[in-house]
Amino acid sequence: MAGSPGREADGVAASAVKAMQAEGRLAEARERYAELVARHQRRASRIAFHYVRDSAETDEAVQDAFVKAYTHLSTFREELPFEVWFTRILINGCLDRIKARTRRERWVTSMPDGPGGERNFAERTPGHGPSPEAQLLSRERRRQVAEAIAKLPDRQRSVFMLSHYEGCTSREVSAMTGLNESTVRVHLFRAIRKLRVLLSEGAAPDREK
Amino acid sequence: MNVSIISRISTPHLGDETFAELWTNATAERQPLSHPHLTECAECRLRLASFTSWLDELRVDAVAEAEEAIPAERLANQRSQILRRIEAGERPARVIAFPRQPVETPVAIPARRWMVGVAAACFIAGVGLGQVLDLGSRLLQPVEQPRIVANPGGIVPNVAKASPVNDEADLEELEAAATPRYEALRAYDNFTPRAADFVKTSR
A152, A191 in Cβ contact below 8 A? Predict the structure, then answer.
């Protein structure tokens, strides 16, 4: 999470872009907005990926969120940090995508990935990274975690990812999700408890071996 | 979300649920994890360390996975796409002309136009002259007006009937006109039968 000076800079940049848009200095507004994009892009992509778990869809979700934020910048109020306002747009977009995908998957059966679950040929080529066995184990562990997180209810998942993965405080999560601060804590607690159960269930057969 | 006293008494050691609660509170308040039992129990401290390391692993793994899935080149491409889309959105809408066949506009030739004008004028003059002449001839001819006879039962127009055609007289007239005036041809004429003869025989 960006610190306070970063947030102030974001606020100043967002207000400047808003003013430029109002004055019709669109090229300058775009240029200034590009700074904001560069500053928040990586984090935004990470959050989107945790939700949609697909690189191409992550790209689209992040693009949509930045374009939407730019076109609706006139509704941005300075009292709320830009980061919080933007993340809210991003999360809503990601949740919409997940809903749309679920609807789609009801009708369309997707083709299975490669034998090891690979999507990319480059992943199968030998390299200097970790051994294939380590890669396989890591991939398997990630898959289990992702499945467990996907089983959490929407709110618990959002709260857990924002609090734990992105290091947001309960107040920030509250502003991003529109939930009460105390509700955020309850959701976080329940999410951890449920994850602990789900992942220990998944790991149990391994222990028996 | 305080840990109930009963659970503390019944289970001296802290469970996962308590750890989750402690961890949640510590994360929310940005404070270190603390519990009175932890200062006394090394086993629980160990389990708490395992619990927090499990959570840390989850985070590190999730962040690493996301970073791997979205490398720097992808981010650069994404940024340029965002700016392109914003720029395209700000551009005024362009009206695309509907594709159609080129139409040849007729070239106005002065001579052709003059000829067309003369032809039109002649036509109008001809029609007008025709009307005038027709009117004149009608005025010169006496027109037979139908006689209207008063009738007590109602006015019934009594149109005078034309005189009956005298066929024989007409035929004679025709034959007289058709009779050749030259003496040499009269002999031939006498061979051919007369129209009047046909009329007579038919009666």
Answer: yes
Does A165 contact B86 at a Cβ distance shorter than 8 Å? Answer: no
Please count the other Cβ atoms lying within 10 Å of the Cβ belonging to residue B110.
Answer: 7
Interchain CB contact of B85 with A (< 8 Å): yes
Residues of B in contact with A169 (CB under 8 A): 28, 30
Distance CA A131, CA B79 (A): 33
Evaluate the CA torsion angle A50, A52, A55, A56 in order and state its sign.
negative
For A66, other C-beta atoms within 10 Å of its C-beta total 27
In a domain, A123, yes or no: no
Tell me the CB-side half-sphere exposure of residue A165, using CA atoms within 13 A. 27
pTM of the predicted protein model: 0.61
In a domain, A86, yes or no: yes
Q: Do B58 and A163 touch (CB under 8 A)?
A: no
Q: Does A121 map to a domain?
A: no
Number of domains in chain A: 2
How much is the pLDDT for B30? 74
Give A55-64 pLDDT, tens digit per residue: 999 999 999 9
Assess if residue A117 is contained within a domain. Answer: no
Residue A184 pLDDT grade (very low, low, confident, very high; cuts 50, 70, 90): very high
Q: Are residues A104 and A145 in the same domain?
A: no
Residues of the domain holding A176: 131-209
Instruction: Nearest by CB to B75, from A41, A141, A164: name it.
Output: A41
Share of chain A above pLDDT 70, in %: 83
CATH number at residue A143: 1.10.10.10
pLDDT of A115-164, one tens digit each? 444 455 555 555 556 677 777 887 888 888 888 888 899 899 999 999 98
ipTM reported for the complex surpasses 0.90: no
pLDDT at A118: 47
Structural domain boundaries in chain B: 5-86
Residues of A in contact with B75 (CB under 8 A): 41-42, 45
Same-domain check for residues A142 and A176? yes
Backbone angles phi, psi at B149, to 5 degrees: -105, 135
Q: What CATH number is given to the structural domain containing A76?
A: 1.10.1740.10
Q: What is the pLDDT of residue A110?
A: 56
Same domain for A17 and A102, yes or no, is yes
